[in-house]
Amino acid sequence: MARLKLGEILVQQGLITESQLKQAIAAQKNEKGRIGEVLIQLGIIKEEDIVSALGTQLLIPYSSLNSDSLTPQKGQDLDKLIPLEFAKKNFVLPISRNMNSLTVAVFDPLDLLMLDNLKKMTGCEINLIIATRTDINKAIDKFYYEGKSAADRGATMFGEAVQSSYEFNKSALADASAITDDTVTEAELSLDKLIAKAGEAPVIKIVDLIIRQAIDERASDIHIEPFKDRISLRYRIDGCLYEIPPPARHLHLPIVSRIKILSKLDIAEKRLPQDGAISAKLETRVVDLRISTIPTVWGEKVVMRILDKEAVKLELSTLGFDQKQLEVIRKALSAPYGLFFVTGPTGCGKSTTLYASLSEVLDPRKNILTAEDPVEFKVEGINQVQVKPDIGLTFASALRSFLRQDPDIIMVGEVRDLETAQICVRAALTGHFVLSTLHTNDASSAVTRLLDIGIETYLLTPSLCCVLSQRLARRLCAKCKEPYEPQSDQHGGIKFKSDLIYRAKGCEVCNQTGYKGRLVVAEVLHIDDTIRHLITNKAPYIQIKDAARKNGMDTIFDSGLKKVEAGITSFDEIMSITVN
Fold it and tell me: How many whole angstroms separate alpha carbon 484 and alpha carbon 502?
């Protein structure tokens, strides 16, 4: 017998009418919520009535917060059996355990996938009681946080999330792997069968879990790599790759196919690299993902770059620059025209700094255009262009078009060739402010790089106004960082101004890494008359660097040491990202 839907149950019990159900279904298309939530929002029915009716129909006892049946038994380690994150996310409250039988209060007893995951995670047979979402939430807060201070509650909540997420991910991926009955090889899969398998519920659930887990863990990239007998799943968190419990090897093809379908890539093409994009809706926000696939000897490797605008505040003051550096940057950004370069290796946060710089100068009275490859963050009020070299839309051609668009400020994703560099310089000389990036190791090298590309000194000297070079250093975890007294013999003879500096230790909050989050470590080269004179004379970069230091510029290493003395990061971290 087919299971009745919630709306049908409510109509059958006379709690709502057919017309009210149709009204809710129509509203659901816009609201994108569950039918019960929509009925409550429309004021057609109360939450308690829905839950009580559902309990009656399914022969599941209904309970409220006023009764003792929503009070978990003590001394059974129920909070360890069902982690806080899972309980909060799925509105599940453990009540009691008797041998291999676990009684839980749930809001949605029709969520069979959640119940199956719960059964596998706990290893118990599940007995249900039903309660409202509001009552379960209150009971969860009381049970998991009882007797803890506000600070401990916050730490418990985050620690549980970090600690349990990997275990739940492992459990859920294992469950989904087990659900798939037939193991098929690449040679056996027809295109139609591959598309069908990519649309199966377990595969959809696995891909959703992988993406959601990565976002929850603040990962910047997801790596899915096939090998002979296994899949490697890794997240890049704070610049380092960490192994995550992977799904079964035979699910590699369906997972890759599912990702390709979502990113509108050619599911049949496995011999050539492909690039695509996905927009993932996560509660109240949208997270963009850039997808890249390449063929390897064991199958296609997929890398997903996560672009979460809300995870990073696009404000210069929050990125890690010290006050003196901020003053130089802001002074340069306030210039009516000129060239502003951000330099550094791949993955050092250049794009984020450029976006933050644009946010500083964002003004409805100014026309701002960008040429990017790709457009990483969509910013309101800025005209952003995605370059497409395969159809002739290069940085250089976009720039030439920009100059006919009455621009005030232009951002170019990267200066890669002489033509792009020349247009940037000429735009700066004709009254436009131009921001761009270069791949150089330090700020002084950017000057010689532009001269080596072929820019004449008489053009570069009057146009260049500032060069910022940066790296990203991991922040020490505020919860567990360990103070120690520095000895000169253990730090290459460097003498610190502070008697105590800090090193990484590791705790549940930072997932035993000792670090949490990253910040910019930078040097800011202000182009003054002294530097202009050196550029005109084609001075070597070391001479430009020495002159800048005499004028008060801190190198990346100097800036890093100041952050070590302030207890923000460790000496080992600074040594790993800089050269003294």
Answer: 6
pLDDT digits (tens, 9 = 90+) for 162-218: 344 444 444 444 444 444 434 444 444 455 555 555 555 678 888 888 888 898 888
Q: Give the integer Cα–Cα distance in Å for 515 and 239.
A: 11
Alpha-carbon distances of 3 from 8, 116, 125, 219, rounded to whole Å: 10, 17, 21, 40
- 566: region left, alpha or beta (phi > 0 left; psi from -120 to 50 alpha): alpha
Both tokens of 323, joined, read 């006050």
% pLDDT > 70, the chain: 87
Alpha helices in 263-322 (DSSP H): 316-319
The contacts found for 176-183 with CB under 8 angstroms, 24 or more apart, are: 176/202, 176/203, 176/205, 176/206, 176/209, 176/247, 176/251, 177/202, 177/206, 177/247, 177/248, 177/250, 177/251, 180/248, 180/250, 180/251, 180/254, 183/250
Between the ranges 21-30, 69-78, 170-179, where is the mean pLDDT highest?
Answer: 69-78
Nearest-CA neighbor of 58 among 9, 116, 21? 9
Q: 374: cis peptide before it, omega within 30°?
A: yes
Q: Is the backbone of residue 542 left (phi > 0), alpha (psi -120 to 50) or beta?
A: alpha
Q: What is the DSSP string of 206-238?
A: HHHHHHHHHHHTTEEEEEEEE-SS-EEEEEEET
